[in-house]
Design goal:
27% strand, seven-stranded parallel sheet, Alpha/beta knot, 6 helices, alpha/beta
């Protein structure tokens, strides 16, 4: 069933109106037809079942048949601080699909990728579009935020208060897959770039109270480590115990 994110003002008197690119997507690639049921999630945290009543070029309308609190969000709020890699678009999509609440790309000391700072606004818009599309496909209850590119200190300063910081390190003693996790306490995963975190960054993380964890006996590339780690942590929090 198609699912898309809308604003509350697109609903009025039990009727939904979708225009612009979202309407083109419904009418085009998704081939939505009158009589079909779709799901929408509004920016007030409610999801709605909508019976499509008309499909025209650039405009789709429908009638609300049910409403309820939005589903699809983990109880554990998970931020991911990701050292910038060339495949960052792929990482953003994967983390959204798994269940991250926010993604914080950082330029680490050993990051090889060094994007043009003049394209920062366009890059952030692209990440936002990737996150939205991935959240719709994964049937998330909200679109995770992708933050502007910063350094490690900047990302740490913006983390939620009381967050538990977990740093994935190949030589750590504690396995993430066995960690006791309190779903009520927000968590942040820190993943370095392909070259790993440098000693100064590790020291800064330790000063911030971070715990060092590993992902098992095999070394994963940075573009995959965050997605695997997020899945393991959400599983430890009980998020994967039930299906839809």
């Amino acid at each position: 069933m198609p699912r898309l994110f809308i604003t509350r003002d697109q609903i009025g008197d039990g009727t939904l109106v979708v225009e612009g690119e979202a309407a083109h997507h419904l009418a085009g690639p998704l081939r939505t037809e009158p009589g079909e049921l779709i799901q929408v999630v509004d920016d007030a945290g409610e999801e709605h079942g909508v019976r499509v009543t008309s499909v025209a070029r650039g405009r789709v309308t429908g009638s609300i048949v049910w409403s309820r609190p939005a589903s699809g969000e983990p109880r554990l709020r998970l931020d991911v601080v990701q050292g910038l890699v060339r495949e960052i678009d792929e990482v953003v999509a994967g983390l959204v699909e798994v269940g991250a609440a926010a993604i914080r790309p950082v330029i680490a000391t050993r990051s090889v990728t060094r994007p043009d700072p003049t394209r920062a606004a366009a890059r952030l818009r692209r990440w936002g579009e990737i996150a939205r599309e991935a959240a719709e496909l994964a049937h998330r209850g909200a679109v995770p935020r992708v933050m502007a590119l910063t350094d490690l200190a900047g990302a740490l300063a913006e983390l939620p208060e009381g967050v538990r910081i977990l740093v994935c390190m190949v030589d750590a003693a504690v396995p993430l897959a066995r960690l006791e996790v309190d779903a009520a306490r927000p968590a942040a995963l820190v993943i370095g770039p392909e070259g790993g975190l440098d000693p100064g960054e590790v020291d800064r993380l330790r000063e911030a109270g971070a715990e060092m964890v590993h992902l098992g006996p095999r070394v994963l590339p940075a573009r995959r480590a965050a997605i695997v780690a997020a899945g393991l942590l959400l599983a430890r929090a009980g998020d994967l115990d039930h299906g839809r």
